[in-house]
Amino acid sequence: WVLDDGKRLLGHVCVQLFEKIPNPVRDEPELHAYVTNFYVVPEMRSRGFGKKLLNEALSWCRAQGSDANYSLGDSRKQIALSAMRVGSADGYLRT
Q1: Most buried residue among 19, 24, 27, 30 by CB atoms closer than 10 A?
Q2: What is the pLDDT of residues 54-66, one digit of tens each?
Q3: Residue 37 parent element (H or E)
Q4: Under DSSP, is residue 74 helix (H, G, I), strand (E, B) or coil?
Q5: What is the dihedral sign for C-alpha 18, 22, 28, 30?
């Protein structure tokens, strides 16, 4: 999913779906969605655009049958700094 103003790319989110190996011990979703890339240019942040991008992607994931979603970061340091700067919402770290 992309966000643009007609002239340039302002943000994007990429998601990959993976079939999970069945767990015989506990009932878990069979399809997992990973947010592998998520970015909004600095001048468009704090306006709700990132939330809209992520919500669209996660709605699509649910429509595909996934109810387990994971966000991946480049490093623990990046995730920790992002969490300190903007916090988290709906169980996801916002970067």
Answers
A1: 30
A2: 889 888 988 988 8
A3: strand 31-40
A4: coil
A5: positive
